[in-house]
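Hi support team,

I submitted a single chain yesterday and got back a structure, but I'm not sure I'm reading the token output correctly. Could someone confirm the output below corresponds to the sequence I sent? I've pasted both exactly as they appear in my results page.

Thanks,
R.
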Amino acid sequence: MELNIYQVDAFSARPFSGNPAGVCITQHELDSRLMQQIADEMAVSETAFLNLADNNLRWFTPKAEVDLCGHGTLAMAHILRQTGLLQAGETITFQTLSGPLSATLGAESIQLDFPLLTPQLHSAAPPALLDALGLERAQVRDYGLFGPKQLVVVDDAQIVRTLQPDFQTLGALPGRGVAVTAPGDGEYDVLSRYFAPWVGVNEDPVTGSAHCALAAYWSERLDKRSLTAYQASRRGGVLALHCTDDGRVLMSGMAHTVLAGTLHL
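Hi R., thanks for writing in. Yes, this is the structure output for that exact sequence:
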């Protein structure tokens, strides 16, 4: 069997930045084990698989399937445009583990319609989590959960930029992923980094799903519906966010294809 495969740098307009995603489009559903093997072979944070028969979209890290992936969805919509399956101005609705998710092609950027995830704030972050992240309790303003993932808020963007987590210790704690965030320190409203050693991704370069919670938190705190966010990983990436009245976040970004080829299976 031969399958077309792509690698796309999402949430960036240039190569070697943003978040790389694998993209595979088929006419029929692939076996879950095969999708997991392909994702492991691609060795990027997520590989997205679309079954055109029912528009079912699934995402796999090298170690596990995930229920929501923003950059993988953006990358998929980008390849649908590149291959002529979707035109500028058109919207496609994907069927996913997180329910129906849509992507609309603009002239250059792609807008994703995702659920807004309001974090449930707690009185204090677990000390072991802060130790693994390299944070002091006095540096933390807020701590919360969005699903199985954690949100840690600090007031200084430089703290976020210079974090050096102990990933072995972090991955041994209960969790699925942790976003560390602060107010922006320039042209951006929000700055963050995202760590997920639990699913084989020590640091995710740009995390669309985490921004479903970051948009909810910062929109309320800054009293702004529209935000510009920067994920300050080594590669970096920019997201435009807009919170709607019906509990959704419109998440926009650009993408660039860096690889196209054939899998021989």
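A quick pointer for reading it: The chain has a mean pLDDT of 97. Let us know if anything else looks off.

Best,
Support desk
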